[in-house]
Specification:
The structure is a single chain. By secondary structure, this protein is of the alpha+beta class. The protein has twelve helices and five strands. It has a five-stranded antiparallel sheet. Helix 2 crosses helix 3 and helix 11 crosses helix 12.
Length: 263
Amino acid sequence: MDTRRQELAEFLQAMRQRGSPEEFGFPTGSRRRTRGLRREEVAQLAGISATWYTWIEQAREINVSSEALDRLATALKLSKTERSYLFDMADRRDPQAHQSEVDTAPETLVSILSQIQVPAYIMGRTWDILAWNESATNLFTGLLDIAWPENQHPNLLRFVFSNPAAKQFVVNWEMRSRRLVAEFRADCRSRLEEPEVKLLVDELSTSSPEFDRFWKQHDVLERQGGQREFQHPQSGLIRFQQVTLRLVEQEQLKLVLLQPGLQ
């Protein structure tokens, strides 16, 4: 924590020194000796005590709230990456971390899907399947091979818990569905209060006794790869090795690949 506190102090100092006073509404003045902004000016912009801000830059052992960090990030006009770094160094959760995320698959990634031969799809923040390739269409019958209304996407959890065919399609459904709920809870651990997440959880808890039971168990597991088995209505038993990749610029999105395994 001492290392992080020192890094936070040096990071804030570097951020306030990089810009010109005029960018933040302050005159340069002939007597200004400080490069960029003065500490008092940052404190003024953020609406916090100048003494308290000075203590942060001195790496003193004080607790910095998420609200104060939010105001500092806004005052210093930090980029998304810089803002994330600020909160990480302070060991605090950013209250606006997910507000700017758009649950839309980038066109570049969508175009890459068509060049992937194995089943592949892009999954969003509430596990909507936003885009997929032909191999995935052929695999997930009853989910990806049907027409969906505009602005509506198939959802992995709704398929597993609301489609009766899923219990025959997913081999060892009980174990796999329980694990999916634990993975979803872990994936949404910092977004459980989001309306979209709450609506989905409420919907599935009402419609599926199994989902409701698994959700109340509060199991958490990171989404991992490994063997997946499906009982396909035309092809019979099919085995895959699943790999899940996250995007650097849109971490809420996942690219899921299913490499055919030995039959």
